[in-house]
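Q: What changes when zinc ion is included in the input?
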Amino acid sequence: MGVGGMIEEVYVSVCSVCGHPLTQEMLAGETRKTDLINYVDRCIGSITLVFCAECLEKIGQYSNGGVAEAVKRLKQDREMD
Ligand SMILES: [Zn+2]
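A: The predicted holo structure follows.
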């Protein structure tokens, strides 16, 4: 931080979904050490996920609608292409 009132943004983390750097104030949520079952590499490890507000909101929306809503979204996305 400079003397002339300039405040540099101090990033403390990275959103696990969008990859944007986050300041303490931008950090909207995180998981605590969680088991990750990796079906691709066929192994189990631990993972901590960090979310910005936008991604946290999206995850909330995606979790609520179920498969029917997801199929609807997929069709809408394809129509836009
Ligand atoms: Zn994000």
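Observations recorded in class: The CA atoms of residues 33 and 50 lie 11 Å apart.
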